[in-house]
Amino acid sequence: MTTSRRTPLTRPSLTALLALLLLVCSTGLAGGAQARASAPASTTASTASTAAAAAAPTVRLGAQFHGLWAEWDDASRARALDAMKANGVTALRVDVAWSMIEPRRGAYDYGWGVPHIDRLFAMAQQRGFRVLATLYLTPSWANGGKGDRVMPDDVRDYAKVAGFAAGRWKSVEAWQVWNEPNAKAFLNPPDPVAYTKLLRAAYPAIKAANPSARVVFGGTEYVDTEWIKRAYDAGAGPFFDVMAVHPYPGDAAAPPERASDGNKWWLTETPKLMALMKSRGDAGKSIWYTELGWSAHSNTSSTPIWARGVSEAQQADYLVRTLRLVQSSYPQVSRVYWYTSRDKATGDIHQDRFGLLRRDFSPRPVLLAAGCLYKNRC
User: Fold this and answer.
1) Domain span including residue 270
2) Is 31's pLDDT higher than 60?
3) Whole-model pTM?
């Protein structure tokens, strides 16, 4: 995710259920008990159970998990993973830095980096999560010190580490080749032809190491069909199993159903992506939203449109509505990964308030809404 982002479907039963959930969340256990006292407990529980069962989506819910960042230890990882698992999150997207695995050419870091990744993936596997690993960030030795967002001088170096990773961590279901390669903040320059060379090198290396692993396209910032088309033109089609995009709204407070105006920064551009894939013979491939989310914070008159926040109630509602929209209208989209698992602490309020969990690990209504939908925890 970069540092700058630029006729709803309604279901009365789900709306009522979410309202009840948010009331309990906002008033605490005592307040929740008082709210429930106005109706017979058996009736309330029965209504909630029926609504949740009827509403349960088939789209798999995942979350971005920055569990390899320095701020995490095993205890905090376990705490976050258990909370997400209890509330219906069944897939994780983990960002893995190439330099963490291979800080020097041909020298894999068995002293710290590799064992550190071992532990995280083992924790995820123990809890039954499906793991998507994003492999990116070029070590200085691979591109002459040009910066970790610059492509390696030789894409075969990336292919080697991708093959090593896929072979060592066979519990990882899928490998994503880079992150937001259409955005200068992550691939500089954001050249689709150069990216396709990386993809073409990585795909056979990953498949040779683990034939069952899926290779995922690099998750473009927004639904950038023009950039993806240029990658297709460069020959990307046979070298990925899953398409991925990050459909953050250009107006960061806009709902998921916001009608597209033809620009890439709306989730409702998804039909254009589906049409492009069909035209290239890829209608049978899944699309994953490998990042999507809304940040919960207040706004001021000077808040830019791409950094606008929503209330916690809206954040929860928008997740539910996204899942409904995807399931009803975009059958090719089989996964939605919420960004992110836990609030960050960068000092940028917009970047820091996307979490399913707050900094103190308390669940936001958005996570509880997921638990209501997927686990009947209402």
Assistant:
1) 60-375
2) no
3) 0.88
